[in-house]
## 1
Amino acid sequence: MSADTMTRPPTTTRWSRSPLAPGAAVYVAVRIITVVFIALDDLGTHRGLVQHLSRWDGKWFLLAANHGWPSHLPMVHGHVAANPIAFFPVFPLMMRALSDITGLSRAVAGLWISGVTGLVAVVAVGMLTRVVADDAAARRAAILFALAPGSFVFSMIYNEGLVITLSAIGLWALLQRRWWVAALVGAVATATSPTALVFVVVAAWSAGRAIAQRREWISLVAPFGSLVGFATWMGYLWAHTGTPRAWQLTERGGWHSYPSLMYPVHVLVKFVTNPLSPTMTGQILVAGTVASVAGLVVVIRQHPPTELVVYATAAVILYAASAPVGMRPRLVMLAFPLTMAAATRWSGRTYRVLVVSSALALALMTFETLCSWAVFP
């Protein structure tokens, strides 16, 4: 071996030098630990790894992927029963397509899509942070997001990874004034989950400002284009079931879900008046509501691009007012500018405390969700 070879620094790939690599590594490590943990738990339950990870909303996504959506609203005791109509089409159709192409079961396909899009979401949040801050903040944001208490859903058949990825790309497009890109990813997002309607609010605000400041009328394509996914799904359900309010009736009858601005107030008042009365789910809702409001204050005080402020504000209001779901960890995670602001605002000891606290909360949520029925995500 020559002296030149001995003194030459080791080569590294561009990705290994990326500030987002640590967050991706943490994400992969969490997924591996989760699978190992569930496999060990299965030694006693004998339910099977895939069945373990197909719980809660996963079974409804699987029903949609396997059998489609019912042409008539199922009724029980005069009310619409729970059925796949509550679950938007992009994710189940992706599961079906991947299964048909690869030969994987629909459940395994769903787990792969959830896991991969979760990883992409970590990278997307980090990249968006890099655009508005710097490499150090991007690194912290990616790690903190990978350890978010709600990130356990990336190990399950859930569509959060897809929604967050699309929303982060859409926000980047709005910041760059790439209106057609924002319209396209927004349309796919709103056909993936109603939670993505938050992006439509931001797109409308961004377009309004572009018109007021620069008479940039083409910007209107972003909010109207983003609505196409949601509107198309509502139109399909109307034609498919003959009921224009099929989705809303399913949400209300099947899951007792409805919008209420008083719901977060009810959650907090119930806790304050009797801290021991809420169930574990109630306590999680209180923690999520308080954390979200505190995070929103941090976002506003950080003075990021106003698109991020509007997104965070609209997300907190919409999700907190969605009874009886409220600010559960996965919905706090969907309001990802909160994580971005915390990672930008704090470093050093405070940031390490946030990371450790998030990791512990993630471990608790993973156990309670996957190994018991005490908490639904």
## 2
Amino acid sequence: MNSTNKNFKRSDPELEKKIGDLVGQMTLEEKIDMISGHPQHGSTRAIERLGIPEFKMADGPAGVHWWTERSTTYPALIMAAASWDKDLVEKIGIGLGRDCLSRGVHILLAPGVNIYRSPLCGRNFEYLGEDPYLSSRMAVAYVRGVQSQGVSTTVKHYAVNFQEYERHHVSSDLDERTLREIYLPAFKAAIQEGGSGCLMTSYNLVNGVHTSEHPFLIDGILKNEWGFDGVAMSDWASVYDAVNPVNAGLDLEMPTGKFMNSETLVPAVRDGRVSEKKIDDKIRRILRLAFCFGWIGREQKDPCIPESDPETIRISLDAARAGIVLLKNDKAVLPFKQENLRKVAVIGPSAHPANIGGGGSAYNNPSHTVSILEGIRHQLGSSAEVFHAAGVRPTRRFKSFATSEFFSGKDDKGLAGEYFNNLDLSGEAAVKRLDKQVNFWWGWMPPAEGITPKAYSVRWTGWLKPEKTGPYSLYVMSQFVDYRIWIDGKLVIDNWEKNLSKDAEGEVGLKAGSAAQVKIELRRKVSDWVEFHFGFEPAGSEKEEFAEALTLVKTADAVVVAAGFDRFSEGEGADRGFGLDKLQEKLIVETARLNPNTVVVLTAGGGVDMTKWLPKVKGLLLAWYPGQEGGTAVAEALFGALNPSGKLPATFEKKLKDRGSFDNYHDSDKDKKVFLKDGVFTGYRHFDRKKIKPLFPFGFGLSYTTFGYENLTLSSDRFDPKNGITVSFDIVNTGKREGAESCQVYVRDVESSVPRPVKELKGFAKVFLKPGERTTVKIVLGREALEFWHPQTKAWTAEPGEFEVLVGASCTDIRLKASFTL
């Protein structure tokens, strides 16, 4: 399909007249219906008598997973950012646009462009890293790719949405300079340069106001300052009032009109609290979007594009190849030399089945998968035997949720459940029942008839009767609830006011034939989907699998340990821990002790505590969440068919306290506020300022070849107000293999009236070179590369003086320097 008109400015009088005529034919009730989502369809509402269809939406960003059972699953967006390849990211967008068209989808709910502040954020994998410039360039490419296919993007979550804990209630508090320099640039670029047709507000508050009703963010910056004429929609169930969001500029409440409906807004229009012109503007925006993309009068579904599309599958594989980051390669252990291998052991929970993506609304059901194990077996063919054992299987807890036996009374199987319409388990229970297992996915619905879905608490009591004496493992998986668990009166798991991650584990000693009393308390405080699962099993049940893996390791010529997080431990709705679970860490350490030829392939959406195991392994490949084709790409990198070229879009710290957000990330004092006291010094800016050496710096990534940086020149020693400064330098492949290098240009303001970062990324390019080949890279720095937001003048400012240009292979590996003056 040809590229479509992405200009949402009111520059076409004929189009605006057509829109105005349609608006004039609509009743007030029809208008209000159209600014609230369809309760069943995940779409806008149709006005059939006027020929206005519903406009279908589908979640992203790694695949289209509404209106279909399966679709191509691409690598997580953070892996796309790790490619440092704008052309590739645009191709990902094109692929997603094709996938939307094959299913008749009009609006893709992506990309996410929130800034990575801490590795703990459960949704880091959905975003584009810690740097506003890199995020901006990738967002523009993604938007242009999707929208070239006649599908609108939805840049999200606007704004300052950096964590998942209590996301409906905690306010992100910050000064305007920090907002402008760090947290808004990617949104601005996606709107003004990419032309995104839609924007989605976030769940959190900013400086005490929910973003869905934030006049400064929506009407002030987005619409008036940036000139956005598209549609500003809410995130799902993130509207908390009727009048305030309408007046603040929100155009569409999703997924349904819980607040923005005729019952609330017709009276508000009649008594003057809401102007009908405000409602009309929202309808105009929805219709403008539809006409610009050509959605009215034709079918959106393109039958010529297959749902299992070879073209998009190929893009997914290319993206996985480009985003893999080689972080450690001692003694050139990688690539493994196939001619030296007779037996390869592939172990770890991420080896098989495929670990393709993080969890929550971003998870996509793939058209098929290639696991790391399958990729290695295909890559090696018959040249070597490949043996597999998981060693550690975190998903084993799911079996315990479904099979754990509890007792209430003498013979009744189950726990006595008491359900309360309050948060403190007080008074008489509204519902009492026997629950066979504690294995619930309640979603948005109440846990029982007669219980309010907004806020409730539950108490379960009873016994468990162990069959054998010894330690028992306790497992919990949860979403959007506080909980605590007692065994025989001892508090063994406490996540009351501490709901910082989805999973929890505990251990208790039990005696065969002796019933142990169980008490579980739970409360739902937030308006979001809920799940809660609890189970137990004898501790050590995993020892057999663990031992089986180590047996394979001892006799292998090479070992690949595929470890990390997965969609159950890292995803939407809760923040994760910093370290891998203890058994995975132990598996890596024991494997490296038994076999020196050990390489780890890590799946994660961000930084991980590696202190216990990284020094003991020779090699480390970061696979992020590589999508459905990831196993092929990983195998190619391990055995040399692919030369890794990915680089980190976020700093990986040694210790969590090294990061600027360490003491200003979660709402630790329970005042429902987090003040971002790191300000503009987030990510590598903080490490530079404090002179802290990271584990792996921003922009870092190894290769199987080497690159030289030479001949830096500037177009002038004084900044040209009209043409800027052109930075030119040579990159040469000084190694023996072809490869790609992502070269980075940073700018330093030598002297400033306000504190500024030591350096900031302002340009980059990815070049592909054969051995001995040389190319000249040219990057133009405009005035915006020199500017900061002045807190007194409330304007972008570039102060006269000296600026340094720093060219390097990473944030800490600066190869060339030059200066100019403004």
## 3
Amino acid sequence: MPARIPPLAVTAYSATSALGRGVAAHAGALRMGRGGLRANNFSSAPLECFVGRVEGVEAAALPQASSHWECRNNRLAWLGLNQDGLLDAVQAAIERHGADRVALILGTSTASIGASEEAYRRLEDAHFPHDLRRPGIHTPHSLTAFVAEATGITGPALTISTACSSSAKVFASAERMMRLGLADAALVGGVDTLCDSVLFGFNALELVSPESCRPFDARRRGISIGEAAAFALLERADVAPRSPRLIGYGESSDAYHMSTPHPQGRGARAALDDALARAGLREDQVDYINLHGTATLKNDEVEAALLGERFPQRVRASSTKGFTGHTLGAAGGLEAVFSLIAIEQGLVPGNLGCTQPESVCAHQLALQSEEREIRVVLSNSFGFGGNNACLAFARADFE
């Protein structure tokens, strides 16, 4: 088993999703049980489903100096950076450590593929239209390159694309980079926007629900796809003695199937075991688990069995995808923000949309939001191809 790691302080964090912009909007929606899913009004052709669309992305504008990165995904990233004092916190970290000592590690599954889709729809004599002849936005690194330029971060810059676990794995990469002395702080997170490739691709796999998704409900019919931008700033614990902590993480790749989890949850179990070991935790010390919970038949079945088997009934658990939809490469980062909200505001998000919970985990599922003391949270992210991650967060005073 891996050794315990020194905790890192989360000195700033924020999120933008279908629930709104910023921590207050997200906490308010969770507390009130108000979801953000709406009938699909995004795809270029009719598709009966619900989506978690962010308002205001189309009207957003990038800084003039970064206009060459213009695309919907980067506009959403810019919205996400300009709230909760995040840019100010990044600038303060740059002043403390130096721009080349701040790392940037972001997760995405589609990056700015929506711009590439548009370019192909608007071909001019077999060439991309002039306004979209910008090679940088047609690469997976578009997001990270834009954020590096917009923030002034000049340290190591990585893009992680491991499907739905992408922006959970960024926390693990940041911890290793800082422990090895390659950086003194790291801006991590994830951004993914709605696009036809995702909507029709998941529909072709028969995974998209025609109604709002219902994670862990016995009558669930599949996922609802959403979009989000989520960011967190990680620094060493002595910089912010009262900030919540990243205390552990686990990663695995079970390589069982392209789109189906291992039937016994082998990869999920391995990620969970490593996260608990790095955090020095026992299962009975966990207060809340933000479950991956996509509302597909197999994913929820495997995760429900793992929850019921490994954790005592007092542990509270929920999937927040009933609020936001599955935000794909941004899901790990968004749900890390939900985990931090749970710790700092004493709030267990409800498992929106579930009225007939899977029996093996019914005791742990919080069907409505609950107010209670939360000291330790786990956040699960289980992606296509068996890419799994589990993050452990704790209150600063937890020992």
